[in-house]
Automatic annotation (TrEMBL):
Residues 152-176, 275-301 have a biased composition (Low complexity). Residues 213-279 form the Cytoskeleton protein RodZ-like C-terminal domain. This is Xre-like DNA-binding protein. It comes from the Bacteria. GO terms for molecular function: DNA binding. It comes from Levilactobacillus brevis (strain ATCC 367 / BCRC 12310 / CIP 105137 / JCM 1170 / LMG 11437 / NCIMB 947 / NCTC 947). The keyword DNA-binding applies. The chain crosses the membrane at residues 118-138.
Length: 301
């Protein structure tokens, strides 16, 4: 494709923006796309964008904002844009596919149901063991052949039941006390930061912290736990995603394609990784992280 045809896409977007009376700053505020990326799109410098997926996603968002048909514009200038067959683009599209998200939710639901079922099975087994023990004790005592032995056995079984009940009560009280002690509030401490991300320390979280992800506008993100990617996808204002960090995990890394629009909660507490300050114990020398594309790492303590 000639250089003239390449310029046509950028010029079409620029002319539409000017016709709407938008400046690049206005468009940045409305789309949450950084100004330097908007300039790169108008100048056809697609290599300056974070990846092939973002080229098409940002162009469509830009076009829709200036009242152009984003999908039609992408189709019209398809040959001037990065290939849609790259592995990166295919992976990103699959992540944002509703069917893929639906399958992920089904897997999560099965996992939650299994976790709820296991304690019930354990209780049933314990009850069966206790009943079998009582039956064996009763059968053994019945073979003594004397009323005195039967009475003595009854007293013994009663005493055993009382001890078991007392032991169970003490165990329940101990567990309840342990849960109360464990009910601490998660805290976040910023360790370091750059223009492209930051590193934090998470303390006082539960043994298996619950993570909730949401967005105020379209935002791609991924979650890597102890070096293994466990989830990635694109969220919007009407969608969210939750996951559990295993107790064996030592670190969690989040990658955000639209960090300003991304919301993260851990054990119900907001993780304000976009703020210029952290908790009161955070280092005062940490720099502000405001980049749209960010990598945020949590070290678990």
């Amino acid at each position: 494709m000639s250089d003239n045809s390449k310029v046509t896409l950028g010029k079409t977007l620029r002319d539409a923006r000017i016709a709407k009376g938008f400046t690049l700053d206005d468009l940045q505020q409305a789309t949450k796309i950084q100004k330097r990326y908007l300039i790169a799109i108008e100048d056809q410098n697609f290599d300056e964008l974070p990846g092939d997926f973002y080229v098409r996603a940002f162009i469509k968002q830009y076009a829709d904002m200036v009242d152009l048909d984003g999908a039609e514009l992408l189709k019209q200038f398809d040959s001037t844009l990065p290939s849609t067959q790259t592995q990166e683009y295919v992976d990103k599209v699959n992540e944002s596919n509703p069917e893929t998200r639906s399958q992920q939710r089904k897997v999560d639901d099965r996992y939650v149901q299994l976790r709820r079922t296991i304690p019930v099975i354990g209780i049933v087994i314990v009850v069966l063991v206790v009943l079998v023990g009582i039956w064996v004790a009763a059968a053994h005592n019945g073979n003594s052949g004397t009323k005195d032995n039967v009475d003595s056995s009854s007293v013994s079984v009663s005493g055993s039941s009382t001890k078991t009940s007392s032991s169970s009560s003490q165990s329940s009280s101990s567990k309840s006390s342990s849960k109360k002690k464990a009910a601490k509030t998660a805290t976040f401490k910023k360790l370091s930061s750059t223009t492209s991300g930051s590193t934090w320390e998470l303390k006082n979280a539960s043994s298996k912290p619950k993570v909730s992800l949401s967005a105020t506008s379209s935002a791609w993100m991924s979650v890597t736990i102890s070096g293994a990617t466990t989830w990635q996808g694109t969220l919007s204002t009407s969608t969210s995603h939750s996951l559990t960090i295993p107790s064996s995990a030592t670190s969690v890394t989040f990658k955000f394609g639209n960090a300003p629009a991304t919301k993260v909660k851990i054990d119900g507490k907001s993780f304000n990784f976009n703020s210029s300050t952290s908790t009161s114990s955070a280092s005062s020398s940490s720099t502000t992280t405001s980049s749209q594309v960010q990598t945020v790492t949590l070290e678990l303590k």
